[in-house]
């Protein structure tokens, strides 16, 4: 079992800190707490992104190491997921964040302010996060922290022990996790998620295009991205082919509502916000419901 907090969780916190320092008229969201999860050197880099003359230098330095895809893709997926939860908030009564990392979504969108939020993550990452939340003095009364190793632990048992209400319609967010798991772990988790969300719930899940695992050159931004996560000890191990995703989910009891790349999702925003950064076509966001879900969900978008 990994005994240290996730490095990728910290890098995503940095990406969100960068976005939060953009001018209000040109950003997709604000995470006011992201900087608190960064080591001192990365805090300086994030602070530089708040200075107009240094913003491009700071983000450019980051992109030079990780490649042009990770940062804008993480920003877009955050906004898409926030919007999906907002759209679902009138129907669901609780939220489960699988692999919550250092995101402060439980404290950010108003849509989650009135419902219990179950944050599920690896024990080491979660312990580091809770220390920061305590230091910030944030109200965590609605939050149930559920330490789980997805490869070994019984997710449902851990949630039930934390007070999960089985009969309540539930939104489950599985962001930035599947690409680090085995196919067996993904299957096992989806089986539990199918039970968790109920007939009126929602699953929001990210994945990478499986073709990148066999042929990184297919996506120009992939090689540096994959090298960076591998160097951090968190290589990509799982993906789905977009053409096969509907069948993959159907075989596991879900009905696909939407499946888009971060590149596609960003098109409407890039022009309006005068964005030059380009999210990746290899990183994708799925929204799905149970196959027995009522049809009233249909027609509600994720943005």
UniProtKB/TrEMBL annotation:
Keywords: Methyltransferase, S-adenosyl-L-methionine, Transferase. Pfam families: LCM. Gene3D superfamilies: Vaccinia Virus protein VP39. The keyword Cell wall biogenesis/degradation does not apply. SUPFAM superfamilies: S-adenosyl-L-methionine-dependent methyltransferases. It is an enzyme of class 2 (transferase). GO terms for biological process: methylation. Belongs to the UPF0677 family. This is S-adenosyl-L-methionine-dependent methyltransferase. It comes from Plantactinospora siamensis.
């Amino acid at each position: 079992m990994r005994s240290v907090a996730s490095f990728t969780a910290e890098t995503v916190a940095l990406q969100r800190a960068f976005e939060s320092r953009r001018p209000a008229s040109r950003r997709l969201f604000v995470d006011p707490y992201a900087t608190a999860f960064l080591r001192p050197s990365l805090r300086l880099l994030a602070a530089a992104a708040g200075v107009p003359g240094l913003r491009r230098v700071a983000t450019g330095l980051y992109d030079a190491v990780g490649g042009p895809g990770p940062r804008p893709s993480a920003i877009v997926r955050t906004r898409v997921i926030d919007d999906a939860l907002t759209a679902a908030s009138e129907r669901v009564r609780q939220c489960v964040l699988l692999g919550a990392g250092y995101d402060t979504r439980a404290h950010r969108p108003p849509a989650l302010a009135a419902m219990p939020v179950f944050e599920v993550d690896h024990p080491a990452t979660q312990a580091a996060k809770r220390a920061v939340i305590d230091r910030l003095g944030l109200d965590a009364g609605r939050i149930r922290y559920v330490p789980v190793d997805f490869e070994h632990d019984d997710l449902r048992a851990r949630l039930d022990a934390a007070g999960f209400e089985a009969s309540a319609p539930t939104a489950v967010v599985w962001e930035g996790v599947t690409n680090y798991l085995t196919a067996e772990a993904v299957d096992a988790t989806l089986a539990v998620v199918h039970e968790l969300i109920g007939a009126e719930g929602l699953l929001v899940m990210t994945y990478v295009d499986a073709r990148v695992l066999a042929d990184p050159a297919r996506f120009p931004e992939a090689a540096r991205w994959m090298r960076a996560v591998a160097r951090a000890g968190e290589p990509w191990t799982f993906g789905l082919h977009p053409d096969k995703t509907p069948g993959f989910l159907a075989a596991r009891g879900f009905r696909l509502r939407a499946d888009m790349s971060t590149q596609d999702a960003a098109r409407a925003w890039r022009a309006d916000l005068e964005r030059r950064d380009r999210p990746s076509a290899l990183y994708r966001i799925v929204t799905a419901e149970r196959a027995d879900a009522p049809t009233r969900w249909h027609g509600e978008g994720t943005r």
